[in-house]
């Protein structure tokens, strides 16, 4: 909304600039080939080509939701294949190539388990670039803001493909989208607790992708000085870690963290835990464990299938713990990205002072609880063995010698009566998990940044429930409406195959498309101007940065897509969050 007054209103100015930008973008969708590289929607034979320092790339054409022709360059190597002696090492810049690299096809994902099958390829350090125009001359071209997306997947799954993270919604706006793959699971996070295999290779892959972006994105029409790191779930946890190291200085300038912070209980485990895990892995795979070098050399010689399919020694109850291999504090040497606990880094104001959006879903706890809704025997099993299994589900079993006191915090606030009706137990379980892993950590981050950061921090809660939901995945294919699940907001930002989040015949409703418009407006306006807003005729709002009032933007309310500014974020969880944080103080991170 633009206010009429005699004084300059910067927020209204940014809104006007954004509206004009969107108008010009729509006008440019159907122009003939021009010096900025745009082509008409009708032209199907023009194949996009660009040259980067590595060599020449030949891409392909795609069409956005609103019919804009864009260019896609897929499977571009940003590091050498991490195979042989490069397995369990930080990424190495890629070699150049002769001739023209075919960047029209997707590359394989990094190795991971899909059910009981190992899929993917170790030659996976590639990225996709989507751009609405290619510059004729990078020296004087008008460059576009860049959104570099780090996907989640509990540090054990994920891919960069356009069928999963499609640009069809975002690139109706004048932005460029970059989506890298990175190593996950044991290949991405094996740590022996010393310099032999310090770990965090997945994080270092993300760092390398950001470096590649700085070096090359101008050849796709992107501005390396206006980069927004967009992240989801464990990708958001990773982004918080990356924002806390000087190695990423100048590599990104804004951050959107969706569904995760580095203060999440499951984020980082003590080095001693992964040292123990490495030894157990070696024994399971028949490798020597008396010295780190002998262990790692043996693991480098094994097939990727044997290494990836090695979770059996670590599974305790069904699929739990969900995360086996993830970030850890590593020795402070060259290339180290995490040398202290994230809480200590934030307390010491090491987190970069940049504009940021932090978002949570209303029912984040469905990440774990959806399986309990779908399988009541599993729920009963958990309740009957609550003191033993809850620490495993929430990943704190390895953090305490005695978990009883910490477990009692959860019981006293949410589950006093384990004999209550199942509907009440499931609702409380969902809220408990969501509060512990998402709401309380974000509340802590927001309050800290309010005091110690000079940049704007926008907080939102996604509360819209459409036809599709991640609970379809979490529950093994159930379509019941249990709430707004972890990651549901991403459905309205990235185009993907609907079959992932609902039955094959399930399509977006008219209301769902309205939420797509709002989410794309909010996220891209932030990437373009640093101020998020949506041109939403149904519920025009001014989203102010987080303040002492605890203000946040509620995006939707069940089936209602309207947005509304609310206050006192997390206030109804204050007592639990306080007790929760006090209990965490007893953790030994050594």
| Structure class | alpha/beta
* DSSP summary: helix tally: 16
Number of domains: 3
- The CATH superfamily of the largest domain is identified as Alpha/Beta hydrolase fold, catalytic domain
Spans with pLDDT under 50 lasting ≥5 residues?
1-8, 13-44
Oligomer: single chain
CATH class of the largest domain: Alpha Beta
Q: Work out the helicity level.
A: 25-40%
Query: How can the largest sheet be summarized?
Result: 11 strands, mixed
Q: How large a portion of the residues is in β-strands, by DSSP E?
A: 15-25%
Give the overall shape, derived from the CA principal axes.
Answer: globular
Distance linking N and C termini: 52 Å
- CA gyration radius, whole angstroms: 24 Å
Q: Looking at CATH, which topology of the largest domain would you report?
A: Rossmann fold
Report the strand count: 16
Give the strand order, joined by hyphens, for the main sheet: 3-4-8-10-9-11-12-13-14-15-16
Mean pLDDT level: 90
Q: Secondary-structure map with pairings?
A:
Blueprint: H1 10-28, E1 49-52, E2 55-58, E3 60-63, E4 69-77, E5 100-102, E6 112-114, E7 117-119, E8 126-131, E9 144-150, E10 176-180, H2 185-189, H3 201-216, E11 222-232, H4 234-242, E12 254-258, H5 271-285, H6 292-301, H7 304-308, H8 342-347, E13 356-361, H9 366-374, H10 376-384, H11 386-393, H12 404-414, H13 422-452, E14 457-464, H14 471-474, H15 510-529, E15 552-558, E16 560-566, H16 574-584
Helix pairs in contact: 9-10, 9-13, 12-16, 13-16
